[in-house]
From TrEMBL:
<feature type="binding site">
    <location>
        <position position="45"/>
    </location>
    <ligand>
        <name>pyruvate</name>
    </ligand>
</feature>
<dbReference type="GO" id="GO:0019877">
    <property type="term" value="P:diaminopimelate biosynthetic process"/>
</dbReference>
<protein>
    <recommendedName>
        <fullName>4-hydroxy-tetrahydrodipicolinate synthase</fullName>
        <ecNumber>4.3.3.7</ecNumber>
    </recommendedName>
</protein>
<keyword id="KW-0456">Lyase</keyword>
<feature type="active site" description="Schiff-base intermediate with substrate">
    <location>
        <position position="161"/>
    </location>
</feature>
<feature type="site" description="L-lysine inhibitor binding">
    <location>
        <position position="106"/>
    </location>
</feature>
<dbReference type="InterPro" id="IPR005263">
    <property type="entry name" value="DapA"/>
</dbReference>
<dbReference type="InterPro" id="IPR020625">
    <property type="entry name" value="Schiff_base-form_aldolases_AS"/>
</dbReference>
<feature type="site" description="L-lysine inhibitor binding">
    <location>
        <position position="80"/>
    </location>
</feature>
<dbReference type="GO" id="GO:0008840">
    <property type="term" value="F:4-hydroxy-tetrahydrodipicolinate synthase activity"/>
</dbReference>
<comment type="pathway">
    <text>Amino-acid biosynthesis; L-lysine biosynthesis via DAP pathway; (S)-tetrahydrodipicolinate from L-aspartate: step 3/4.</text>
</comment>
<comment type="similarity">
    <text>Belongs to the DapA family.</text>
</comment>
<feature type="site" description="Part of a proton relay during catalysis">
    <location>
        <position position="107"/>
    </location>
</feature>
<dbReference type="InterPro" id="IPR002220">
    <property type="entry name" value="DapA-like"/>
</dbReference>
<dbReference type="InterPro" id="IPR020624">
    <property type="entry name" value="Schiff_base-form_aldolases_CS"/>
</dbReference>
<feature type="active site" description="Proton donor/acceptor">
    <location>
        <position position="133"/>
    </location>
</feature>
<feature type="site" description="L-lysine inhibitor binding; via carbonyl oxygen">
    <location>
        <position position="49"/>
    </location>
</feature>
Length: 293
């Protein structure tokens, strides 16, 4: 249903932590101008964990309005409370999102049956297309391929963002689910290979700062053009790793501030602005990717 480079958009903030409305508008325009194929609003990179309910809805709706139907908007609506996830997914559908991205419930440590019932109920209650999101490094909750296969039978569960970076896991999901569910990378470093294997795109942190190159890399990989995809990906390889030298979105927010999008101090506690120690390495990665800053 969705294809290509899908940016996991930051939520730009001022130094005092307020949402930076002007920077958000400029960022959306930047992505529309540079070929981003879809925008994921208020996911992990968008600091969903520290936006309050009102802010969460506002940022989702603002991105939807700014995009104005030009590309899909996928709203991050996951929660470790099933009832809360249902409520936020309903709101996203009312506000015009094209789909929702739902992270596995964090902290609770549900069983595989609990995960199945969680996602099944959300899908039954809200008719919007839904994308599962497996990122055990963040959540301490790993949704196994056999559970994904069960969920692929539910019509409005249309995809999964698999962020383990494990290509054997990706191949297993592809084999199990076939054309019943789309597979997306959630790991920039292995995204090209996952797409060449049969994945449909990348929900990307790197795309925040290099949207045109990420779009072109994903497009080449989707076309089966390994040579072109590899050439582009080589210029992005350092970004794929160095934007994670400290917890996301600390480095990418600093990088975007260097590009003129928001204030580098604009991040919510308990995250803090990235350390001076990593800035030269992130800057070198940006320059390797041809980013002017």
């Amino acid at each position: 249903m969705f294809r290509g480079s899908m940016v996991a958009l930051i939520t730009p903030m001022k130094a005092n932590g307020d949402v930076d409305e002007a920077a958000l508008e400029a960022l959306v325009a930047f992505h529309l101008e540079n070929g981003t194929d879809a925008i994921v609003a208020v996911g992990t990179t968008g600091e969903s964990a520290t936006l309050n309910y009102k802010e969460h809805r506002h940022v989702m709706k603002r991105v939807i309005d700014l995009v104005a139907g030009k590309i899909p908007v996928i709203a991050g609506t996951g929660s470790n409370s099933t009832a809360e996830a249902i409520e936020m997914t309903e709101i996203a559908m009312q506000d015009g999102a094209d789909a929702c991205l739902l992270v596995t419930p964090y902290y609770n440590k549900p069983t595989q049956e609990g995960l199945y019932q969680h996602y099944k109920l959300i899908a039954e209650r809200v008719a919007i297309p839904q994308i599962l999101y497996n990122v055990p490094g963040r959540t301490s909750c790993d949704m196994l391929p056999e559970t994904v296969e069960r969920l692929a039978a539910i019509p409005n569960i249309v995809g999964i963002k698999e962020a383990t970076g494990n290509l054997e896991r990706a191949a297993d999901i592809l084999q199990r689910c076939g054309d019943r569910m789309d597979l997306y990378s959630g790991d920039d470093a292995t995204a090209m290979e996952l797409i060449l294997m049969g994945g449909k795109g990348d929900i990307s942190v790197t795309a925040n700062v290099a949207p045109k190159a990420m779009h072109e890399m994903c497009a080449a990989a989707l076309a089966g053009d390994r040579e072109t995809a590899s050439r582009i990906n080589a210029t992005l390889a350092a970004l794929h790793t160095d934007l994670f030298l400290e917890p996301n979105p600390m480095p990418v927010k600093w990088a975007l501030a260097k590009m003129g999008f928001g204030d580098e101090r604009g991040i919510r506690l308990p995250l803090v602005p990235c350390s001076e120690a990593i800035k030269p390495q992130v800057l070198a990665a940006m320059r390797q990717a041809g980013i002017e800053c």
